[in-house]
Amino acid sequence: MAAILLSLASIMSGQVKKVAILETVDKKGDLDYSVKLMLRSNLAKAITNTAGYEAYDRTDVDAIMGEQNFQRTGMVSDDQIKRLGEMTGADYILVAEAVVAGDSNMFITAKILNVESARTEKTDNALMGISPVDIQRGCEELAGNLFGVKITSGTGTAKQPQQPESQTATDTDDNSSNSGNFFTRIFSGGQGTDTPAAPVTEAGTIGSVIRFEDGTAGIIFYLNPYGEGGLAVSLDEAYLKWDSSKKSLDIAGLLNEKGKCSLMCNPGMGALNTDRILAQVSANAPAAAWCKGHGNGWYLPTAGEFLQLVAANKYKGRNGPINQAITAAGGEPFQQRYYWVSNEQDKKEAYNFPIGGKSADTEKKGTLQGVRAVRMF
To answer: Fewest CB atoms less than 10 Å from the CB: which of 184, 230, 273, 300?
Structure first.
């Protein structure tokens, strides 16, 4: 009841209440960074899509909490809660703790702290899978319970979910456009990830065309083995630099790894990387900006996501089935040997991926390379 009254009061007053999302507490240290990042971003997205609320997880929040050792313990005093509110401008603070539960699940408990009274307004918990789709749905349910509303398919109470249509790879209709709305913002300062579209229909298979309501389209190259959803690659490509600035920057918050990209295979991580790149490099990130410029949901993939693409293409480059599907749909076939991904080596070099290879390589950020946009659905 308290959560329902909280939500109704915010809507009726017309005031948007700010909720600071803190880093997910992982006391046992057995959760991957990517999983904690997806938990935090999906909770922020679900809350932002709740009428009357805006969620954010600014970098300075982490800095403050790091000084107080909050992320490790999850404990905070009344004075610290109020100080956090003063320094961040938040009306509420969301604290979530997660622990691995079995081979493919995790248990999440969360609470909403009122900054003014320093009291816990509401607590709730959820058991969810560790796939991106499961995390999205679990966080939507958890946020809905905390704020007394129903949130579905990543959309707010006043928004309608997108309904993509799947077609066979032989469809030759118009390909994806380069215009459209940018990502739904969920982080302060414009950082965040998009709202995934509704799951592909039963007819959708790897190599088939998927079209979205915003007019964009792509070829499905990955389907979630744990449930609905997957990844699609754009029908067009570009030849751009990763960073065009005179003095390159080491991007904070990117998930990076050498070798065969085992930590970067989590679908959807490229969206977070793309927003962090654009937030910190802005107009000097041609590859990321081009991908995001396709519209709602498109981003520069991680090396792990691109590995899924080349695997679905049977490591055959222009002779592979995904490239044939792109051509059949009226798109541009693969033109380049190497393509940029959203992971960096350091401030001077970023990762690229060979269209016929099995592991990432590095190249200077100012080098022209191929670029393909990816979208999670």
So the answer is: 184
